[in-house]
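Re: [help] complex structure
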Amino acid sequence: MRVSFPFSAIVGQDEMKRALLIAAVDARIGGVMVFGDRGTGKSTAVRALAALLPPIAAADAGYQDGTVRKGKVPVPFVDLPLGATEDRVVGALDLERALGAGVKAFEPGLLARANGGFLYIDEVNLLEDHIVDLLLDVAASGENVVEREGLSVRHPARFVLVGSGNPEEGELRPQLLDRFGLSVEVRTPQDLAQRVEILKRCDAFERDPAGFAEMWGRAERATVRRIARGRAALAGVVMPDAVLGFASRLCIAVGADGLRGELTLMRAARALAALDGIAVVSAAQISAVAPLALRHRLRRAVLDETGSTARIERALEELAA
Amino acid sequence: MSAVGEERLADALLAARLCAVDPGLGGMILRGGGEARDLVLAELRTGLPGWASVKRMPVHIDDERLLGGIDLAATLARGAAVSRAGLLAEADGGAVIVPMAERLSDAMAGRLAAAIDGDARFVTVALDDGIEAEERSPAALMERLAFWIDLSHDRHSGHGPGAEVPQAAAPEESWTPDQIRDDGEVVTALVAIAVALGIDTARAPLFALRAARAAARLDGRAAIAEQDILLAARLVLAPRATRLPTAEEAPAEPPPPPPQDYAGEQEQGSPAALEDVVLAATLAALPKDVLARIAAGTARDRRATTAHGAGERRKSGARGRPMGARAGLPGGGRRLALIDTLRAAAPWQKLRGAAGRVAIRRDDLRIRRFETRAEAVTIFAVDASGSSALARLAEAKGAVELLLAEAYVKRAQVALIAFRGTTAELLLPPTRSLVRARRALAELPGGGGTPLAAGLRAAQQLAEAARARGRTPFLVVLTDGRANIAADGRAVRAAAVADAMAAAKAIGAGGVQAAFLDISARPGPEGAALATAMRARYLPLPRADAATMHAAVRAVQPR
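Output below.
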């Protein structure tokens, strides 16, 4: 397997990194949607994170057909290609065995392979709507139910859904957007020094992937420990009623649709506190994750020019005052 | 043949050699060029090692063939699973030629992009036969190929590699890009040029750096020299420019401190000087159409996206409402209809001497058919002339905005044509992006004559183009119907009216669904006559505001 670009070596893009770390700590957040141009390191970051995570028990990863598996395997990372057919995504009748041996067998799809890990969809806004519907349904239920071609199979499919796309090339339906837990906007840094640094690191990595990964090994191990500690601490993090009230007031103030926003805001704040080793969630964590959790859920006229992030920040300021 | 053409061909040949030296450059987009492309491909072939294979990827290749999978026909014939490697795997170490790249579906481009990002190492040469600015290779593919070379103005025939092109040194087997030391300065200069030209992607300067190294290597030098940087900037960065550097930003930007490891070596002059030299050379190399391209926006229209608008029905093998089955091989998105296949095989079982298991032959295979709806494109042709008074234009814009918002909800595409002065202009090629639509509307200027004929013709062309791609066009014309500029640009009223009528009749004959919104303050007979000629619904809206217009169009829109 090819060495991944180290997560810690990604220059800037702090918001994206934070969102991914939060999703790594609490998979129930419901995935991350990354908006941004090509070549801004979206897929690099997601792949890097998957490669970073410690191996998981084989019984929790990939397709589970009921047989007992032992040992550990790397965290699955599945790339869902644009234009993938429904068969490839949910799985289908194993044609080879059906025709060759006359056996009715199930050939697991990408959802099964992604179980326990990450499912990454580049250009999710260009994906066929019926595939997106299907993905979101499975992502929400954690189980893939196949009822087709005489097959009746159900298997666990718990994964962190990460989508990326460029709104200039077609937008995502609001109801689908709402299903993503967090959303991030990435931009190319316009600062020359930062971009020079990006080019240098990419170049160093391309020339000697193993050596470059070695150089960043220390920072990578620190991130692994941070995620592990965060996961362990998550259940114990306290969410005071006053902070819950603050979160609700914020959602009302910005006009976020539905309960899902509030729920995600709360979970993300808790995960962030766990990551940072904080025992009691305060308004600071809520404020830090509010743009991530709410910016894609604001009710707005489709042609409204005001940025959602600006509206959330304004509401935060007003609430703090 | 022009000197510019010679130069472009020389660039293309050089790019081919650079790709052969370092396949990490991804490859190139060759736009147009006819036979000149064969020269480039031949050059690439010579540069690659002898064992490398060059594969041509047909447009309608299926997944099994592209990525590898079971060979269904062979499997059936033999009664045991036969698998074969995909085309991309076979091309490893060699090259993949993608003909008609501008027609490549986003899905195919996505698979290619994933293969390029993955472990496979091959040079991709995308042959782009696009003519219009919006007919381009998929962005996901372009992003991953270092060189974009436009040969489209050359009609080249029987010309060997030019004498001015140095012959390629055969790359040594052992060579990897590491051996050439680069210089902190080079990195800074390339990034600075990328920033100045408004290139956002981080891949571009990385490609430029690789290209410079490969160029140095090709010349047998160990270090990158100035000419390598010039070459890389011209070949990699210039075609990607999205804006021209502003005066104060280009030369005066203070260079960041040089990195420590190279602080001592400054023989090649200060970084600022290097940047300036390279930037000046890059600007000189900017393709002539770059400004047009910048104006048109870089996003490619999306022809392979979902069909969820209100379009005509069409048959599809992959999705939609089931329509029954027909004989055919599954693959390429077509799914096996198992029951129908068995039903087809059943009567023959005894004859075939089946014992124990069902004997299925290739001819028994049935695939499913589905019905989908074609994507709808709503084309707005908006009269922005002086006679459609300014207030009316604002209302028209408001109505278009509302319709846009609705088209967005229905997942239909929208396009916007404005006509004023002497010409019609395509402000917004068919898109689903609200961001772009909003921008195009905001930039819509007003005033001047009414070249109605030109506007209608542009609208019809766009509608025909949309239909040719399997979409269903719906035309909405907003005008006061008072044509005063003829098709040839003369301000002769009688000719203008006649031309407009002819254009309207052409639309009527073409059978494009249309609505004609008469926005003049006192709707006259001209509008009604034009609408009749167009076979369009005529909607006189003398005092309508944006919301009324919107409601009117909605009522006549096909569902």
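The first strand of chain A starts at residue 32 and ends at 36.
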